Every structure is written in C-alpha cells, then in structure tokens.
Amino acid sequence: MKEGFRQAMAWLHTWAGLIFGWLLFAIFLTGTLSYFKDEITHWMQPEVQAHPLDDARSLAAAQAYLQQQAPTAARWFISLPDSREPGLSVMWQDRIDPGKRGNFVEKIIDPATSQPVQARESMGGDFFYRFHFQLQMPYPWGRWLSTIAAMVMCVALITGIITHKKIFKDFFTFRPRKGQRSWLDGHNAVGVLVLPFHLMITYSSLVIFMNMVMPAPITAAYGGDNRAFFNEVFPTTNNPPALGQPGALLPLLPLYEQAREQWGGGHVGRLVVNNPGDVNASVNVVRAGSDRVVHDFGSTVSFNGHTGELLRVSAEQSLPAAIGGSFYGLHMGHFAGPVLRWLYFICGLAGTAMIGTGLVIWLGKRQLKHAKTSVMPFELRLVEVLNIASMAGLMIAVAAFFWANRLLPVSFAERSSWEVESFFIAWGLSLLHAMLRRGRQAWVEQLSAGALLFVTIPLLNALTTSQHLGVSLAKGDWTMAGFDLTCCASGLFLTWAAWKMQHRVAPQARAARAQGLALKPEAR
Amino acid sequence: MKSKTSPPVAYRLAVTSRVLAAVVGGYLMASLAAVCLALWLPTSRADAVITGMMSSFVFYLLAVIWCFACRTAWRAWCGVMLPSAVFATLAGVGFWMART
C-alpha cells in the first residue's frame, strides 16, 4: 500500500464494499420496501377495510372494545387509523406481579362495529421493516450487525467520493453498451445523483442506534446510571403508579381534543392508557410522527384518566435532541406525502442499484483476467454465487413472501411465520441453484423466475381476492392498485434484466475476439 | 495460479494490523472523543451526551481513513492511539473535575 492517497482509498472502497456488499444490498432493498410498509400491509391483509377517517368514532369503538375485553389490563395502546394505515389497532398488556412484564395482545378493530376484524395472520410490510435492521437474528445481534454494516457503508461512501476525482464531470458521462465501463458509469451516476440521500440514510442509521453502539458517553457522564439518562431524555416513561382503588375511566375523546389544542391542531398518533380501571389512571396522548420532519419521541400530553386533570405537556426539544430527531425523522420518512414517499422509494432503489453494480464491477474486473481459462478460481466463483443469490435470489424471496400470503389458507396454523419461512426457503433455494448452475445461466434463470413471479402477482390477487385491479382502480383504492402495478413493473424490469443477461457478450467471447484481432497482424 | 500473484506474508500481516487498528483502535478513539464531548460541552448533561454520541461516528470515520491512508501499519496504530491518549487524559480530567 505504498501508492497515493486516492489509490489507498480505492482499495478500501473495493474491499469494504465487497465484504459487506451482499448484506447491504439486502438491507437497502428491504429498507426501501419499508417506505411502503403500511401499503404492503394493506395488500397483505385485504380483509381490513378502509373507512373514511373519523377519529371520534374510532376512539369510541376502541375504548368500548377494550373496556369489555381488558378492563383490568396494566396498559392499553390505541393506534388510530390514518390515510396510509386503514386498521384501528388496539393492544393491551396483562397485569402480573410488579416488576414482571405481562403479555401483549393485539387486535385490529372495525371502527364501525367495534368488533375485531377477522384478518388473515400476516406480518405484512412490517416483516421487511424488521428485517432491514434486525436481520431475523435474536436481539441485539441483528441490530449490531446492521449498524456495523451502516458504518462500513459510511466508509465506503466517503472513500468512494475521494476515489472519484472528477465527480461532476464524470456524472455527465454515460457510455452504454461498453460492458465493464457502462457498469462503472452507472455505479457512479446512481451514486452521485442521490448522494445526499445516501449520506443522510447512512449517517442517520448510525444515529438511530447510537445509544446501543456508543454507550461510553452515557456511562461516563451519568456515572454508570444509564437509566437516569433515558429518564431525562424520554420523560414519558414516568407514569404515576396504580393506587388500587377502582375508578371509572373518562371518555377519551375530550382528552384527545385537548391534546390537539395544545399542539395547535397537530395529529394524534396513538394513546396509551396506564392502569385503566384505577383512580390514578393516566392517559398519554402521543403526537403522530407524520406531523413534522423532526421526530420527537416524547411529544406527549398526559392526563389523569379518572379526573381529566392535565398532568404534563412535554417540553420542546433541545437543539441536539432536535438534530438527532431530524436524523430519525428523515430516515423514517413518516412525514412524507405520496410524491415525497415515491421519491424516497426511488432514492432507496438507487442506493440498492449502487451496491449491486459495485458488486458486479468487482467480479467483472477480475473475471476478465481469467477469461482464457475455463475454470474460475474458487474465490471468484464464491463471489459470483453470492452475487446471484443475494440479488436475483432476494427478488425471488420477496415475491415468494407475497405469493405465500395469497396461497397459504387463512386458517393455516402459524401462517404468519410460514410466510416468513417461505421467504427464507426461497432465498435458500436460490443459493443452492446458483451453486449448481453456471454463472450466466443461473442469472438468467433466477431473473426470469423473479420476473414471472412478480408479473403474475396482479393475476394472483385477482384469483384469490375480490380486489383485483379492475375493482381497486374503479374504487380509487390506490394502495391496492399501486401494489399490483408496482409488482407488475418490477416483473417487467426483471424480464428486461434477464433478457440483457441472456444476450450479453460473454467476457470469454469478448476476450477471444480481442485476442483474435491481436493475432491477425501476426498471422499475416 | 496461486503462488504467482499472491502477496507476501508480511503484506498480509500489515493489512491485518491496519484493519485491527481501524476497527478496534478507531472505536476506542471515537468512544473517548465522545466521552470528552459529553464531559466538557457547556450544555446540559443530556445534550452533551447526545452531541458526543452523534459526532462520534465522524471520529470513527476519520480514524478508519487514516489507518488505510498512512504509509505503514505502525503509523496507523500511532495515529489512532495518540489522539486516544489525549482524549483519555482530557476525559480523566473532566471526570475528576465532575467528581470534586
């Protein structure tokens, strides 16, 4: 490593990018899908009908249901429907001995009848959201691994910028149909075009988990009492204890209205009722994250649930907390309307494409050297197999998840976890397939399989539910229709990719041709 | 195929050493820098901690870049451990002042 600074950075970019590339590709793709988490859930639980939003009716229905089902629970959670999430979700926690945590029970209620909706069991879009930072690993290992991947991404981004000397001039250079050169141009273009998004999304993911990965300052400043820090930063966790005397809970609607007045008409995301049947019941009305860009965990108005007395209005955030909150808010994009949400989605796809093209370039460059020999060295073959399984295979896995949602019977035991299983089974099979088949065939076959699975999703939806494109478009249910159409478009894109791969000039052939040209003069 | 282009053992050890300096040494330096900020910033305690944690990743990033940009693996370690020692001293003074 005696070369210049830029070469050293290029080396770091190459290797950091390679080793974490496959994981980052999966994190970016599932994270991008999470921007439409609620919309995916709506498609995966078509039984949950959207009603015109009416918070008063929803609140009354939720309170009536909880009063009847869980009057002695330790805590109720009521999440009101919004324009993206049609379900009215109620959750309660059983009371057991103090110091122990009771079980959580969650139900989706129909606001019109205040009866639970019989929806098929499914994680919906939440699966992608959870996977993109927990990686289906036990707590806290997945979060650690994904945060480490984020740090590597950060290093790869900055070293990529340093390596890329003519950043703006090169941006306008795209040389299509030039093999390796086109891949590099594409990599640079998607990298530079949405560079602010890449930097934001990467740094914010570090900030989101900073309490976990960088605990030293908390321990040092609070003398080892980390709890004191969290109580100071998140004061809403300090609720009055139950007194043990039964007391009737007031209707929640007036409290809801009072809280909205405090926020100048801001929206309510959810309500938490502590000790609902007690004279010391407390009601925390939590502001919706979609109200502002800057996310505030503690934006809450608290009341005594028995007397209606206003207990606490959370203070404004300090500047550092607001900066941290805006990183969080920007990463999650809760505030984004439809246009901005699509922009987020496209930026996320660009990030995914940047990682994917980087992996392809790494292999392509090295494959050229071995073009003459028919056998690839083990390490290149390994990268090739992992490239295929992590990119094309992941597409198949996502499609398999959607297919399982429609094909598994509604009454199937553990159906929700079987949907997740089918995602991983499909992914595992694609890895096996990539190992057994030669590189290009494996690419073409897997891309075609993914294309077929995605293109036919609208058809599958039409056959298994009553909400096919004809119905959803006529009804103006853009979530349902948008999902079908996006799947179809993804399928068409994969078809194009498979077609390109099939008709690509193989490196072997090109090398042979180049050799042929070089030999000709000698022959003469 | 194997022996023709594979780099010498010394080179591999040096790269391993740099990786360790970047990952372990870098994290140590970033943590100590964050602790310094948390103890020395003139804002409220919680705000100083949040600022320290948020900026620690920039220190980590700079440490990683240094470890791969400098000329030898020894310099990588020096470049990470010297600032760490400075931050540790500053943090120690801050901690002691907070106690008394």
Please tell me about this protein's structure.
The complex is a heterodimer of chains A (524) and B (100). By secondary structure, chain A is of the alpha+beta class. Chain A has helices at 5-34, 37-44, 55-69, 126-134, 141-163, 180-193, 195-208, 210-213, 216-221, 226-233, 252-262, 319-332, 338-369, 378-407, 415-436, 439-455, 457-464, 469-475, 478-503, 507-523; strands spanning 75-79, 88-93, 104-110, 115-116, 268-274, 282-287, 300-304, 310-313. Helix content of chain B is 88%, strand content 0%. In chain B, helix 2 (9-40) runs antiparallel to helix 3, helix 2 runs parallel beside helix 4 and helix 3 (45-69) packs antiparallel against helix 4. The longest helix of chain B is centred in the N-terminal third of the chain and has 32 residues, at 9-40. Chain B is elongated, with a radius of gyration of 17 Å. Chains A and B meet through helix 1, helix 5, helix 7, helix 9 and helix 10 of A and helix 2 and helix 3 of B.
